[in-house]
Specification:
Distance between the termini: 49 Å
Shape: globular
Strand content: 15-25%
CATH superfamily of the largest domain: Phosphoenolpyruvate-binding domains
CATH topology of the largest domain: TIM Barrel
Oligomer: single chain
CATH class of the largest domain: Alpha Beta
């Protein structure tokens, strides 16, 4: 059955149009089930009817012409019930309706299944036989499975068909919200001038010249990357964010990697090929090897390789980058947006980003957030249909409005203007502590991965670094860094923030962040060998990290350490024992040099639901807890937020998530253990208010959120917010959000809520 299903789905997916897809569906389904007739009726919701879209067995003249009102006939009966109907003799059923134009007089048995996508009825798939006999259970199972597999494909094909044929959009286009904010501008579609996929494999009679041309191309790409980095470093506010440097470190490392460029040269020499052909062969092989790894981080490395390859091809073919009008604000639209492409476009005209491919964790999304540019990823549309059209892009909701009327445009522009004004007000107060109007102190810290481009006077006004992602330096290496190299990374960071506490998370790789030099395949990486599980299985890695961190903090004493992805008490016990072993060794070194080492505070992250039930057992082993709300939300709801099919189900405001957070706060007080929050939820205004109402007072977030959260925290009455939350008791979250909105309006802070 699986083989037959796969063939049908592949045929439908490969069809050039919706009509061809439906014809392929009915033909292959009829053959697979040995039915006498197969038909598909597609819903037309606005007219409240079904239309016969394709059939193998009914009259060809009826296809496209025959319609049935919703609820009419057996097709309408299946649609209204939204469940399978299997009849031995359809003609005796009270809902049977005879349609003479279809020529179905000879058919008796009937099996119909609804095609529905996310609760929306798309159509009905029907098989029929002349013989008066019910279809068997295997036929039912096949049809139900086929309809479920088809649903999203049909929905997508209908949308594309409407856009291609009518160039109309029946409402907002939805994707994955990747970078907050809104903008209004014309769409500018970008295409690579020489597509890697279309490069021919061509021989050459002049190998030395091709090698020299390739070397020149490498040098030119190196210069381009250096220029882009210089542009970033000189660009101004927020563009020095660590994520940008991190991404371009990866690019520079690749183009300067002699094993990468050397392999391309070897292909030119050994196979006598043109340089462009060798680039295609080597880069395609690399991308194919990476995309089978199952990790979203590794897949992003595949995107990086394609970007470098496209740049080399551009230099080899002497194609110039697309020129953008310096006076025309634009929303960049592309099949796949690379991080370097965003930096190439002048910041004064780049207002937003739309990408067909990519996720919330893609390098382009990270770059957009660092540059404070609204972005929506995973938008399944033909990009050419958007070129030159006016768009409203809402990166906060993940929505795009095409050709909005003037009133809608003006409304959004007013919202954007007010938001910009409020952000400027907040940034002027960046250095002021967050003390609520009823006198309660909120500590607001920073999440970081590398040294951050902040002024020293701003650093000293931070309340701490609540999360230092120690895996970032590992991800930038070609092999595991030595203890000395690690000590250099950590020392630089701890010194830069010498006056405030820094909490370093031990290596959190695996899942969506596999090391390129330590890869392994898993069928379900999110539930696999990651975080503390991996480092406890490789104790030398964890010990090396501990010792490097301890040595780096020797004269600073601002280090705290926490372990990620904890699920069991034994993991915490073993991790603490290893820290004590490392501390003893480094302490002896320090005493021999006449210095005294201070034991850092040790914490465990609460990211996995099991931790809620073992906090009492873990508490004696730790000094504090830290909550990663992103993973905690993902695991409580069983939702991958980077998956566009289910991303709309990901919500940290789900009652189950909020009740879990409230319970963690309560238990932490009972256990007398400090607890902080370092996920994205605390960087949102309503998230911060809810967490404050639960009793949390220590937050850590991305740099771009700190000014806004401090500004709001100084103006709210936490006692009043707590009363609202307690009165609601998390039983009606929408009502509570509405009450919070009214309170923000009362304080004149509604713009911070909208964004």
């Amino acid at each position: 059955m699986l083989t037959l299903l796969r063939k049908i789905i592949e045929g439908v997916m490969g069809a050039p149009s919706l009509g061809e897809a439906m014809r392929c569906l009915v033909t292959k389904t009829k053959e697979s089930l040995r039915a006498d007739c197969c038909s598909v009726y597609l819903a037309e919701p606005e007219e409240r009817r079904f239309r016969l879209a394709a059939s193998d067995g009914l009259s060809p003249d009826a296809v496209g012409r025959t319609v049935l009102p919703f609820g009419d006939g057996l097709v309408g009966f299946v649609g209204s019930r939204q469940e399978l109907v299997n009849l031995a003799d359809a003609t005796v059923h009270p809902c049977f309706k005879y349609l003479p134009e279809t020529g179905e007089d000879c058919y008796r048995s009937f099996l119909g299944v609804p095609i529905a996508d996310q609760g929306r009825l798309l159509g009905v798939l029907v098989i029929q036989r002349r013989q008066s006999r019910r279809f068997d259970e295997s036929d039912e199972s096949f049809m139900v499975t086929l309809a479920a597999q088809l649903a999203s494909k049909v929905a997508h094909a209908q949308m594309l068909n409407r856009i291609r044929e009518e160039h109309t959009f029946s409402g907002p286009i939805r994707g994955i919200p990747a970078s907050r904010g809104r903008c209004v501008a014309r769409a500018c579609v970008w295409y690579p001038q020489l597509d890697l996929d279309h490069v021919a494999i061509s021989p050459t009679e002049d190998v030395p010249t091709q090698v020299e041309l390739f070397r020149q191309a490498v040098f030119q790409v190196q210069l381009d990357l250096d220029t882009l980095m210089l542009r970033i470093s000189q660009s101004g506010v927020k563009k020095e964010s660590s994520e940008i440097f991190e991404i371009f470190e990866i690019y520079s490392m690749m183009i300067n990697d002699s094993s990468f460029t050397g392999k391309i040269e070897s292909v030119i020499r050994e196979r006598g090929l043109m340089a462009v052909s060798a680039v295609k062969i080597v880069c395609t092989e690399l991308m194919e090897s990476l995309t089978t790894g199952g990790s979203s981080y590794i897949r992003e490395r595949s995107v990086d390789i394609r970007d470098i390859a496209q740049r080399l091809l551009s230099k080899l073919s002497h194609n110039q980058a697309k020129a953008f009008d310096p006076d025309s604000p634009m929303i960049l639209v592309a099949e796949e947006v690379s991080a370097s492409l965003l930096v190439e476009i002048p910041s004064k005209i780049l207002k937003g980003v739309i990408s067909v491919k990519g996720s919330v964790n893609s390098h382009a999304a990270i770059m957009a957030r660092s540059l404070s540019i609204p972005a929506v990823m995973g938008v399944e549309i033909p990009v050419d249909a958007l070129d030159g059209r006016t768009l409203v892009l809402d990166g906060t909701r993940g929505e795009i409005i095409v050709d909005p009327n003037q009133a809608v445009q003006e409304e959004y522009r007013e919202v954007i203007s007010r938001s910009r004004h409020m952000q400027e007000l907040a940034e002027k107060e960046f250095c002021q502590p967050a003390v609520s109007s009823d006198g309660q102190r909120i500590l607001v810290g920073l999440n970081a991965g590398l040294n951050v481009g902040m002024k020293d006077e701003e650093k000293c006004h931070l309340d701490g670094v609540g999360l230092y992602r120690s895996e970032i330096p590992f991800l930038l290496q070609n092999s595991f860094p030595t203890e000395q190299e690690q000590q250099g990374f950590y020392s630089e960071f701890l010194t830069a923030f010498r006056n405030i506490p820094v909490c370093m998370r031990t290596l959190d790789v695996g899942g969506d962040k596999q090391l390129p030099y330590f890869r392994y395949q898993e069928s379900n990486p999110a539930l696999g060998w990651r975080g503390i599980r991996m480092t406890l299985d490789n104790q030398s890695i964890l010990l090396s990290q501990y010792k490097s961190m301890l040595r780096a903090a020797e004269d600073l004493n601002n280090l705290n350490i926490m372990i990620p992805m904890v699920t069991a008490v034994d993991e915490v016990r073993r991790a603490r024992e290893l820290l004590e072993t490392a501390f003893q060794e480094v302490s002896e070194e320090a005493r021999a040099a006449g210095r005294e080492l201070v034991m850092p505070k040790f914490g465990a992250m609460i990211e996995v639901p099991s931790m809620l039930f073992i906090m009492e057992d873990v508490a004696p082993l730790v000094d504090f807890f830290s909550i990663g709300t992103n993973d905690l939300t993902q695991y409580i709801l069983a939702v991958d937020r980077s998956n566009s099919r289910v991303s709309q189900l990901y919500s940290p405001y789900h009652p189950a998530v909020l009740r879990a957070l409230r319970e963690i706060a309560r238990k932490s007080r009972e256990l007398d253990r400090k607890v902080e929050v370092c996920g994205e939820l605390c960087g949102e205004v309503f998230g911060m208010m809810l967490l404050a109402a639960f009793g949390y007072r220590v937050f850590s977030m991305n740099l771009s959120s700190i000014a806004r959260i401090r500004y709001v925290a100084r103006r709210i009455d936490i006692g009043r917010v707590t009363e609202m939350t307690d009165r609601n008791d998390l039983k009606d979250i929408p009502a509570l959000m509405q009450e919070f909105t009214g309170y923000m309006d009362e304080l004149g802070l509604q713009r911070f809520v909208a964004d």
